[in-house]
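User: Can you recover a sequence for this backbone? Please restate the input before giving your answer.

Assistant: Of course. Working from this structure:
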């Protein structure tokens, strides 16, 4: 069984679009709030957390809704197209409001943009498992994540070129570039991936059984069978694991700049090499990790990634100042994060019904987003009230908890055929 790489890249266009927006959002919106509207860090932080709070409620609902919709254009495509149009319309009002220094209009448009992005995040991600057989979803998710990285890199490049070091930048060209990129990506998706026809083609190529998510789907997809207790238990532990390793990882990524300043005395910005290297290693590891998981299984790959990250967090505790040897553990953190990120979502999907993929995609993001809401508060409290030395022990504790919960997951794993060679893992003729 071979993965259609070309098809998967096209499916990933929606995630490419999403990632470009979020990279711009995370980098530019705080600058506008602080520099143009002169808001403090606390209020800025509250506004920036709004997307995660909205996600907790919107993503499961909209994901579930996309499961139930059936149109000539497919289940996910209407949400992707509609969400993109609304997001672009609202986001193009942001630089207008910024130029007019109208905070009220800016917040309203920002809120509208976030709702529009929420409208199609779960359906866009759910499109991959809809059109990919269970055994190939880790490899496909690796490519989807790679597409997301490309989108993020494009946004960073545009920020560098258009904004640079300007004291009073005009944000309109940047927003226009990102909006155009988002629209082009989704247009390519719509005209190349005819969702309903592609689903029929995938069933012809791989068979009905392989395209279903679980055993109960294979028996009779039309019959609503309650989730088996053991499967439900595994899903619960997996979702808890998702929240726990995000608690660890996001604590480090959000606080490393303050940690470097207060404990390492690092003012030159050299510590950024650590986070950049972790990101680069994660990106180049996505596809190899997908291949590895197909050989040894998703669960083993994830557990290996959790162990690796835990060891690296522990090593960072011992460092009292910045040195280039820290690049090694941070590079390994990137590899471990790739191992987790590529395989966890396909495991969640594998425990759902084919008719519930959008719903469980939303649940996956609910647990990851809840961690991203809670961990800045919890870790921030410890850093401020106890000591900055708590950062990496905090990450170690939550990583260990993630390992414990993940070890209890008994379902959602999948391996490819034993005799496949590495060259056979991907169909490059697509």
């Amino acid at each position: 069984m071979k993965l259609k790489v070309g098809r998967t890249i096209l499916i990933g266009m929606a995630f490419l679009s999403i990632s470009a927006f979020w990279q711009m959002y995370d980098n530019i919106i705080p600058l506008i709030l602080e520099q143009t509207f002169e808001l403090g860090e606390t209020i800025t932080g509250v506004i920036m957390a709004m997307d995660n709070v909205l996600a907790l409620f919107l993503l499961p609902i909209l994901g579930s809704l996309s499961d139930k919709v059936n149109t000539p254009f497919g289940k996910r495509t209407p949400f992707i197209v509609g969400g993109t149009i609304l997001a672009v319309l609202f986001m193009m009002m942001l630089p207008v409001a910024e130029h007019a220094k109208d905070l009220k209009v800016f917040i309203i448009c920002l809120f509208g943009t976030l709702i529009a992005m929420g409208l199609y995040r779960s359906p866009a991600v759910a499109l991959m498992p809809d059109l990919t057989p269970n055994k190939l979803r880790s490899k496909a998710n690796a490519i989807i994540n790679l597409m997301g990285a490309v989108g993020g890199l494009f946004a960073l490049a545009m920020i560098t070129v258009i904004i640079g070091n300007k004291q009073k930048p005009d944000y309109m060209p940047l927003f226009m570039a990102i909006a155009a990129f988002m629209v082009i990506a989704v247009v390519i998706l719509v005209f190349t991936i005819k969702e309903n026809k592609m689903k029929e083609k995938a069933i012809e190529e791989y068979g009905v059984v392989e395209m279903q998510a679980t055993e109960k789907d294979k028996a009779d997809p039309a019959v609503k069978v309650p989730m088996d207790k053991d499967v439900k238990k595994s899903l619960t532990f997996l979702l808890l694991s998702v929240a726990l390793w995000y608690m660890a990882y996001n604590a480090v990524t959000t606080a490393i700049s303050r940690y470097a300043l207060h404990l390492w005395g690092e003012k030159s910005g050299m510590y950024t090499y650590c986070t950049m290297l972790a990101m680069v290693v994660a990106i180049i590891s996505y596809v190899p990790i997908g291949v590895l998981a197909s050989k040894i299984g998703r669960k083993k790959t994830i557990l290996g990634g959790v162990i690796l990250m835990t060891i690296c967090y522990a090593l960072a505790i011992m460092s009292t100042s910045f040195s280039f040897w820290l690049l090694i553990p941070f590079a390994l953190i990137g590899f471990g994060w790739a191992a987790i990120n590529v395989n966890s979502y396909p495991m969640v999907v594998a425990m759902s019904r084919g008719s519930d993929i959008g719903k469980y995609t939303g649940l996956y993001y609910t647990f990851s987003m809840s961690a991203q809401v809670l961990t800045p508060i919890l870790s921030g409290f410890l850093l401020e009230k106890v000591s900055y030395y708590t950062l990496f022990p905090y990450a170690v504790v939550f990583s260990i908890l993630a390992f414990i919960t993940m070890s209890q997951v008994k379902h959602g794993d999948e391996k490819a055929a034993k005799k496949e060679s590495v060259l056979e893992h991907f169909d490059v003729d697509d």
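That completes the design. Residues 3-211 form a domain with the Growth Hormone; Chain: A; fold (CATH 1.20.1250.20).
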